[in-house]
Write a structure and sequence with these properties.
heterodimer; A: mainly beta; 8-stranded antiparallel barrel; 4 helices; 18 strands; 13% helix; B: mainly alpha; two-stranded antiparallel sheet; 10 helices; 49% helix
Chain lengths: 372, 198
């Protein structure tokens, strides 16, 4: 699935007037966080809103320059994260940039520490210029007692509050900006206090390199989950089924139909089950009828709980495999496979039908992706 | 300028105004600056905010503290002065360029260069091989990094410095810079790079 990445550039011409205030770390000013996450499996959409504070937002080309920076950051992260996406999780990155005068910001006191804020839900990046005395880039976390993250440790503050930072001409290329942006995703540095890379992290984007590796992909996901958004991509279960029918016809003749089916079921985070099994059917009768058919489809739907996988088949009785009709919504009750041990479920049902017709069904499910 | 006990001074730029500048907050940020723990961003954040929120007050507070006997206070004051420097600060910053501390020297030099005074250039060239740490970032930037940035931003020259990213590579460009400065020092004019964001 191709991930969309986009940047929304908004030029704000009106300034939000904020009432000077004091706040605690629980203050509602910071209730939303400058980095927002929404998840609809398998797409995790990360929206980061940044208010760039500059001397003169109206100077020619300034707004365009910051929009371009946002686009460069987006492209860099997209190019790095896309190849690591799975059927289970992929990221959609949206960066919203506003360019404001420095007067748009004010200080907010948080547990005795001062933050630099504009609007709830907006990170603040003050542009320190390109002059030789421009400040070194720093990201500050007023919600941490040290106002920064320990190297190698990620943090959820961007998803809960607004951070502020100073960026400047010391940032030269897209990877420099992408590194600083990484802090707004909650990523700590991959280098130690002396600047040397942490073990195994040489050359990563959060070191001094430009590589977005599997660990960074996983860490972005980990921070999001730590911030309270589960990135549950669901489960894949391998299913095998046997359906046997025995019938005594008028006159004493008998028929037996044995079908073996297998396939995969996907269990979504909300418990919804979908999947298709492929069956081979062998039918014999005492009067000489003998037939084998293959590639018969059994479409299953249902619901998973902590204790059972309950399914029925929705492909009707016209699919060519008549016995399936006996555990459909229009036939008998759905079949509930009890979870007998972690990642294993089993069902065995025998149903005595009218006209001396007996249906026996066994279903076995084994989870392919479950941790426990 | 006279620092008042109450933490206010009369600004040179506002000498006709009766409004004193409250330097108390900036003064406190400078005096409490702590460079001992590279991961303690608290005092660094306070200093940055004091400068951002009222650069005039920060500048005035720094002027009064650049000769502090406390090394961290002095360093924070010089840093503050370097990022808020105005043309009137040359007399304060020039002596600091002769400090025994390479961090103080380079901070003073970038401040002077930012106000268009080329006398900072040889100080910055000589700093290209200095690996002393500066407690204003994480990891702490090195003196040679600050000098490299300032030279590239203000001279219009390169001599391989832009491509040089390690200490050794940067230091290797020194002879070319020294030769250039020998030829240009009488006529040098600062050429400020605008960068991507103006």
């Amino acid at each position: 699935m191709k991930r969309m990445a986009r940047i929304v550039s908004i030029c704000m011409f009106g300034l939000t007037v904020l009432v000077p205030t004091r706040a605690s770390s629980q203050d509602q000013f910071a209730s939303t966080g400058g980095t927002d996450i929404s998840f609809e499996s398998p797409i995790a959409t990360i929206t980061v809103t940044i208010d760039f504070l500059v001397n003169d937002p109206e100077a020619p080309g300034v707004r365009e320059s910051f929009a371009d920076v946002g686009q460069q950051i987006t492209n860099f992260w997209v190019d790095g994260l896309d190849p690591l996406a799975t059927d289970c999780l992929l990221f959609d990155l949206v960066i919203v940039t506003n360019v404001l005068p420095e007067s748009a910001a004010q200080e907010l006191t948080i547990d005795g520490r001062n933050a630099y804020v504009t609007t709830p839900g907006h990170h603040v990046v003050r542009w320190g210029g390109n002059e030789p005395n421009a400040p070194w880039p720093n990201t500050y976390d007023p919600y941490d007692s040290d106002q920064t993250a320990t190297p190698g440790e990620d943090f959820t503050s961007p998803y809960e509050h607004e951070l502020w930072a100073e960026w400047s001409g010391h940032l030269v290329d897209a990877s420099d900006f992408a590194h600083e942006f990484g802090h707004l995703l909650g990523l700590g540095d991959d280098y130690a206090s002396d600047g040397s890379p942490l073990p195994g992290r040489r050359g990563t984007l959060m070191d001094n390199g430009d590589q977005i590796d599997q660990a960074l992909f996983d860490r972005v996901a980990g921070v999001i989950e730590d911030s309270g958004t589960a990135l549950d991509c669901g489960e894949t279960w391998q299913a095998t089924a046997r359906i046997q029918t025995d019938q005594t016809l008028a006159g004493g003749e008998t028929c037996r139909n044995v079908g073996d089916a297998e396939g995969e079921l996907e269990v979504a985070p909300d418990g919804k089950i979908t999947g298709t099994l492929t069956a081979v059917e062998h039918e014999t009768c005492s009067f000489g009828f003998d037939r084998t058919r293959s590639d018969l489809k059994l479409v299953l739907e249902g619901t998973a709980t902590e204790t059972a996988l309950t399914v029925n088949h929705t492909s009707g009785t016209t699919a060519g495999y008549f016995p399936f009709g006996f555990f459909s919504e229009t036939g008998l009750d759905p079949v509930a496979a009890t979870i007998t041990s972690p990642g294993v479920a089993h069902a065995s049902v025998t149903r005595n039908m009218p006209n001396n017709f007996t249906v026996t069904l066994t279903l076995d499910f084994v989870c392919q992706t479950c941790d426990d | 300028l006279v620092a008042c006990a109450q933490g206010t001074v009369e600004s040179a730029d506002q000498s006709t105004s009766t409004q004193p500048i409250d330097t108390g907050r900036a003064r406190q940020a400078i005096e409490t600056f702590d460079s001992s723990d590279p991961l303690a961003f608290g005092s660094r954040a306070e200093l940055a905010l004091a400068i951002i929120s009222n650069p005039v007050a920060a500048h005035e507070a720094a002027i009064g503290l650049v000769e502090s006997s406390d090394s961290d206070t002095r360093l924070a004051a010089i840093y503050t002065l370097s990022v808020t420097a105005t043309e009137g600060d040359t007399d304060v910053l020039l002596p600091i360029m002769e400090s025994s501390d390479p961090v103080e020297r380079v901070l003073a030099a970038v401040g002077i260069l930012a106000i268009g005074d080329g006398r900072a250039v040889p100080v910055l060239i000589s700093a290209l091989d200095n690996d002393a740490a500066m407690p204003f970032g994480f990891p702490q930037p090195r003196v040679w990094e600050k000098a490299r940035f300032a030279l590239l931003q203000s001279t219009g020259q390169d001599f391989g410095l832009r491509q040089a990213t390690t200490a050794n590579e940067v230091a290797a460009t020194m002879p070319a810079w020294e030769g250039w400065w020998e030829d240009e020092k009488e006529t040098f004019v600062v050429t400020q790079a605008t960068g991507p964001m103006g």
